[in-house]
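User: Predict adenine phosphoribosyltransferase's structure from this.
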Amino acid sequence: LHTQCSQRLQSPHMDLSHVPATQEKGWYLALMAPNVKGPNYAWLDPSRLYCHPQGLQDCVADLLQPFQGDRIDMVAGIDAMGFILGAATASVLRKGFLAIRKAGHLCVQTLAQPYTDYSGQEKVMEVRTDAISPGLRILLVDQWVETGGTMRAAIELVERLGGVVAGVAAICIEDSEGGRWIQQHYKCSHCVPPRLQTHFNHHQ
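Assistant:
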């Protein structure tokens, strides 16, 4: 994966047509770009993956594979990068999409939930109160689960409104205390093969 990533970065432009002959689960992870701007940014940028049509399709397919046959009534994506994967997932499932927002963006009645994000900052998340009815089964999607604080806040919002968390999906769910808690309590899906999980946990 590291070799593939290095080869991609040598070109000034993204190759949006190349697909490897062997497409094992997670092949598209090599499309992600490492941080070149320093410690104030995330260690990896998955948005390159979304530019590759086959990479994005295969990523969504892998995220949905564990939920085949499960009842999912709606997909909810978490502000902001979870909107991309969440909307793509909802489209494949032919379900509606609910945006779970950072506080201050929704002009309708909302329910709020404070949380601490992966960087240690205290924030507040909101969801509109009219979209989730009791018993509605919701698949929660975010780009990444690092410490688990953001995803746990989304879970609490859904459950406080009477919804049921049908599952949690992200490109990577790190082996952190929060990540383990989520995987112990909810059906989860992510795209990192077991042999690479340790590297992702250590941001390598």
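The domain at 59-199 is CATH 3.40.50.2020 (Rossmann fold).
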